[in-house]
Amino acid sequence: MDKINGLIQKVTVDYKDFPEHVNEVVEMKGIIHRIREMTGFAFVIIRTARDVVQCVYSPDFSDYRMDDKVVEGCAVKLTGKIVKDETREDRYEMQIHGIEVLSSPAEQMPIVINKKQLDNIPIDLNLNMRPVTLRNPKERAVFKIQEGIARGFREFLTSQNFTEIHTPKINAQGAEGGANIFKLDYFGKQVFLAQSPQFYKQMLVPVYERVFEIGPVFRAEHHDTSRHLNEYISMDFEMGFIESFYDIMNMETGALKYIVKLLKEEYAEEVALLNVNLPEINDIPVIKFMDAKDIIIKKYKKKITDFRDFEPEEEQILGKWAKQEFNSDFLFVTHYPSEKRPFYAMDDPADPEYTLSFDLLFRGIEITTGGQRIHDYNEQVKKMLSRGMKIEDFEGYLMAHKYGMPPHGGLGLGLERITMHLLGFKNVRYASMFPRDINRVTP
Ligand code: AMO
Question: End-to-end CA distance of the chain, in Å?
Fold first, then answer.
């Protein structure tokens, strides 16, 4: 009888192991990314999980003869000798002794994905053909970097005693208010797709004190913009026993520093491939909302029409200002007007027209919203009533307040937004593997 022991057998070699196997004959599995026929020999470029490996086919190396079944797109097992690449420093290649075809494509690739980057194909074609365009080394590097960002967030918060949570995405109420909520028929009842894990992360503060979640959230954005998706990954945390909302900004700054370090150390190849300009994060400057408006008026001579929020152009001005004045790619803006913040935001006791909340701007674009929450039951009920909300609809959420919760706060950081600005994309769709926007639900 067969028994499974959980030991993963590895018989093939990865590119990163090549230096240890110079002059040895080894096996490697991968997909034929490209075949470049030369006179008397051919380069067979193999795409593995994270590398693009140069292999050389020549009748001089062995008796093996490549036939026309060996085509681009085949999944193969190669046998060959590892040698140093004489033309490129610190690179190794394989001299092919044999190719076993494990599977073959049914059709030839309709677009060229095996160049260094996708040749200026229109964004719609790129997204329509995502299962194959993601195979392009630069495209896939984007989501490796994205993995690094989410991993850094998770690792850092875990090291700070946060508990990872998974909260429901089908809910009886929306957490963020506004019209951008998806309605769903749930066995004849109307329910909503989660706009954020806000209620649940707060409810879990009296349970675990510090919690975080990395998960999808849904926003029924009705416009086709370059920075909004209808489904995005929200990286959230919530922490109890804060002294002030500065604790949250400090925690986020720590997480961002950790993420940048992780990308430098463990994602160097992707960082180099995409030519990523990693920010140097030292201390992040903090400015109050109204002071920021003042700078925009006085220093940049801009007329302000809305004193309750920023226009995208104003955020860009502030981004420039932070760079010029503090050499910082980041800027915390605090004390947003109460009127524009959700009902759970705590008003500033010193000036209740403003909240103990903040946004983080990265290179002039908002990537985070956060702040201190109301923890007192009566205060929370009062604010909800003043906004015309029905208390009985929020019984579950308010249970947390009713039976006691510590002073707390947290934030939400859009994974695609931060990826987009880190990589300098003009459109957030490039930072989403399979974007959902007003016109797109496939592939
Ligand atoms: P907010 O609604 O500001 O706050 O969202 C937080 C962050 O999520 C990202 N984001 C989006 N990304 C892509 N497409 C969208 N449509 C989109 N909408 C928002 C942004 C934004 O900064 N519950 C609060 C957070 C909190 O206070 O903890 C919330 O969801 O990066």
Answer: 42
pLDDT band at 10; cut points 50, 70, 90: confident
Integer angstrom CA distances of residue 47 from 135, 254, 315, 334: 9, 36, 41, 47
What burial class does residue 413 get, using C-beta atoms within 10 Å of its C-beta: 0-12 exposed, 13-18 middle, 19+ buried?
A: buried
- Look at residue 186 and tell me whether its pLDDT is greater than 80: yes
pLDDT tier at 11, thresholds 50, 70, 90: confident
Instruction: Take atom 19 of ligand 1 and give the residue whose Cα is closest.
Output: 414
The model carries a pTM of 0.97
Instruction: State the closest ligand 1 atom to the C-alpha of 229, by its place in the atom list counted from 1.
Output: 14
Atom of ligand 1 lying closest to residue 201 CA = 28
User: Relative to the CA of 410, which ligand 1 atom is closest?
Assistant: 28
> For residue 298, what are the contacts with CB-CB under 8 A and spacing of at least 6?
none
Closest residue to atom 15 of ligand 1, CA basis: 228
Q: Which mutation among 239, 417, 421, 436 tests ligand 1's pocket best, with the greatest number of atoms within 8 A of CB?
A: 417
Q: Is 228 in the pocket of ligand 1 (CB under 6 A)?
A: yes
